[in-house]
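Can't paste images in this forum, so I'm doing it all in text. The chain is below; anyone willing to post the predicted structure tokens underneath?
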Amino acid sequence: MVRRLVSFSSFGAARLSFVTSVNGLRYVRVHVDCTLSPRRQIALLAHELQHALEIGERTDILDVEDMESLYENIGFESLDNGSHKSFETDAALTVQRTVDDEMGMRPLRTTGTVTY
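Text version of the structure:
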């Protein structure tokens, strides 16, 4: 599930949350701040979908604790405010940079105008 939000607090411009696992299927939710430019939203969505792929490739990730353990092994902690931890991976950062670079190479098409 992808959800567009109007604003974020201390979580940044995008995040992935583990929702549940049922009958071997895992459900995650991606939040993206919709007040950002479309290009920025796309790059952040690609970043979060990379995280979803990282979870999807591991059938042993069945809850939030499993997900946290995965990211402690494959990534690095990017936030710990006492009630919430966030993790990052080089793969997700690479995907985001790649999308940013590719989107920057050509103008975004809109009706009647070209936006750079």
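The CA atoms of residues 10 and 83 lie 12 Å apart. Confidence is low (pLDDT under 50) at residues 108-116.
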